[in-house]
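Inputs:
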Amino acid sequence: MPVFSASASPINGNINGLPDKCMCVDGVCRDPSHKHYAESQKNYQEQLTQRQLAQKRKRRLSLTTEISSVRLMPTTTCSLYSGSKFIGKQTSGSHSYEVAVHIQHVDLSESFLCGYLHIKGLTEDYPDLTTFFEAEIIGRKYSFLTKKWDADDKIDVQHWTKFSAFRPLHKHVKRDGFVYDFNNKDFIFMRWKEHFLVPDHRVRTINGASFAGFYYICYQLSTGIITGFYFHKSSERFQELQLHHCADRSFPSFEFR
Amino acid sequence: MNSNKHTQAVAELDSLDPFVRVKALRFIKNNIIGNKTKKDLYISLDVIPKLVAFFKTQEGSDSQVQIQAAIVLGSFAYGGEDNVAELVKHGAVKPLLECISIRNDSRLIEAAARALKAIYKCPTADKNDVFQDLHLRDLVTLLNPDSLNPKTDREKIASVHTAELAATIIARCCDTNDQQIQIASAGAFPALVKLLVCGYSKAQEAALDALAYLCRENPDFGSKIVDTKSESVDSPVKIMLNLIRDKSPTMQLISAKCLTHLSRANAISEHFNDITLIVLPTLVKLLDEKGPVREEAPHVLAYLIRDNEELQKAACDSGAVLKLADFVTHVGDQDNSYYDPLGDSDKLKENALMALAAVSSLTDEGRKLVVDAKIIPHIVKAMSHRSYGVRAAACQCTRSLSRSVNILRTNLVDAGIATPLFKLLSDESTDVQTTACATICNIVLDFSPMKRTIMEQGGIEKLVELVNSPDNTLRLNAIWALKNLVYHAESEVKDSVMKALTYQKMEELIEDQEIDIQEQALNLLRNLACSKPHDIEEVFRGLGEQRLMNIIESKLCLWNSEIIKQILYVINNIATGAEYHKKAIMSRPNILTHIKNYMAHENPEIRVAAVWCLINLTWTEDKNNSSPGRVRELRQFGFEDMVKNMMNDVNLDVREKAKTALSQFSQP
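Outputs:
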């Protein structure tokens, strides 16, 4: 079904469908369901636009203070938003570690997100280990085929097919020009690559642990569940990540300038 | 004494005999051309008012005297900004503009136009006089060399030269949209397009330059230029694409600039391939030139690629980043002559930094290339450069890089960028303050390790000071930074921000004349009233319930998606608070009506935000369990039916949230 008819709301511009009579006080109507109100709001907006245009015409055209007029509005979906948290565990053989993922920034238009991955009890030196990771979201920009990080097509298929949601896509993957459009889909596939430790990014090596590999990730919008498999050529295969979303009800927001 | 000769020449200007005056003028002219010291000497002998007076006499004005006087005035103008200021002070501009009327001797027109060209080269010169009387009409007439009726070959060359001067004056008088409009209505487009094919390269360059400035940031004029008909079989764009292949680097640069401005004005979208395959590579190739061409090429390149991801990627692939980085790294600050004895190294550095800022503004690939070019330490150094343009450009570059969480947490911290950047918030130049403040917006984010540093140095107080600036962009950047700073912040940080800013000031900003500032102020309110009842309570205490609800009610009416989004999340966040916070919203039927209307908004993000408000208003975990009452009221308002409809929404996010909201209505 398409988006609801615009006439349901005066905000969408259809003024004529609204009731004509209203109880204006001093010529000002404050009831949003009446026609006069919508008309006066529209007039006000038009005046504002005109005034801004007039100002703009007098302004000097200069490049010094602006490199970009494009806004970097946050583009998010369901539980993939800046500030979102997931908790769960990573299992490796018979061992299991507590994991929390704290997403810092999401930019779906760039097929990108990044965040912190906290893991507990992995090594004695670092009982609480936090890494910074960046995600490649499979879509217009990134293909299912990794082509780097020691993963060949065979490794890719071995890992992706562990997600049942991937199986119907399997036969398309090697087709030229195949693009998985994640918009409005229940499943989003990603690769998560850890880059450095938090807070000290200068630490290069950790005894008994490594973050040289990467995760194959599958996220389901409707359940908020993230499943992942770690791959590194010299690590144990198919270490599994299982996370669920911690629900938020209030939402602050930021925007890069 | 030698200077007696000069004093005498000045005295002879008062002679009643035109022959003596012309002789004196020639003497002065021959002395001052190309000689800065002599120019200064004559200015100190107060010669300018005497020269200006020659144009004021109605009767018996001698054209020879006027021609020579105009040449001398022109020569002064070529001596730099101080001289131009002297000329302006003594009222030389108006009489010179009078001289360019077609009624006059063509040699007088040429001399006056030449002087005006030099005067308007100075960026501080007032352009208003050009737009008075019939001067614009005169300038446009002169764009056509035939209007001077040249007979001999010498006259023909002179008339083309005059057309070139007129085009250059026009190019220099397009500072604002209003000026562009007036020049265009005087009929400049057909005349300039015709000049493009006159066959004389200097005049062609001047015409290209004028067309470029006439369509800068002006889509309307961009398409008018593209559609301008001429005697040539080729379209204006085709002519420009031929000229960009000229062997002269200057012609290449100006053609590229004109095509860039047309492209930025969305006038030649069907030529996108030509932009990627011809214009952009030409600009990158021109970085290997010397002098003014190399200086301006990065500026044009920056303008071409800003806001366009695809072109930024093409610029990355073209190898431009390393060349630009080389200018930033190697152009000496003391030793101007090392790199280019003819060039202005400050300008080159500024433009190179701007181009790097543009390359890395939208994509991580671009940012990575700039970081890998190892220029961050040089950017830090450039922040204390003597030229304000370089300082501002260094901020822009940092701003682009700071759009990556990765780079914020690593390279920028390592380079110690926070402190020098913070100092620039107090720079003497507003442009520098503005760009520094834009960059600070990213530096004070939750995940930036430099947030602490900025706060410890008094960042909050400084930003609050800038919020009071009369400059719109600076005010916008400052409120933006404060909003980012309280994102996910602890209550103490929120408290110190509001202590410095005050709720009254926030309310003023919510009513600011600039809609963008209103949006940021509302986003600040959203971030303050967030995450725990204590924080929400602070906002209620700070503004008072009535004022807060009045703000919400009035702002919900604005026909601006971004404002609506912010205000819906203000409501949503308040609705997660204590019982009486929710009650404050429930007691305003107009607010509820708006929320319901926005559930049918065309923008899915607004539909999601509106449904979130409903979810929190019907949430059932409070101990006194008063939610059944609210559920009943909202059902009566028609919310349940609305949400039922949304189960079929085209957008998955909306459907998911509607599902949650509906389940709250069906709770016992």
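Remarks. The CA atoms of residues 185 and 221 of chain A lie 8 Å apart. Chain A touches chain B through 64 residues (CB under 8 Å).
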